[in-house]
Amino acid sequence: MNSADESGAADHAGAEVVVALTGGAKEDAHAVFGALRTAYICDRAPNDLPQDVPGVRSTVWIATFDATEVRHDPAATRLTAPVMATLQGGYTAVEHVRKALASAFTVRVVGKASGDQEEEIQVRLENR
What we know:
alpha+beta; single chain
């Protein structure tokens, strides 16, 4: 692999944001991931619907989005209840995904952890 290929791979990796959703119904997870799919390429197919897991444990739904470029801004989307989301990735990519979510939901930042090249933010998503 030449240095140009390595640089492109590093740039692409910095554009990926892992989105983890908790505290909501599978329909809400599908709504959030659907809104983000409007804006970005996702590692999951559109027909890969979140599923409930039997038992008493909390369920976490995870998808990775490529925030290299926005395809379309998501439209306002309805949730049945607030959803907690954790966004993890490069600073610029996380900010892009947060802004895309703000097109569809009210976004309240409730926590943040920063590193040298990545950050993690926790947000509460609510209906607009």
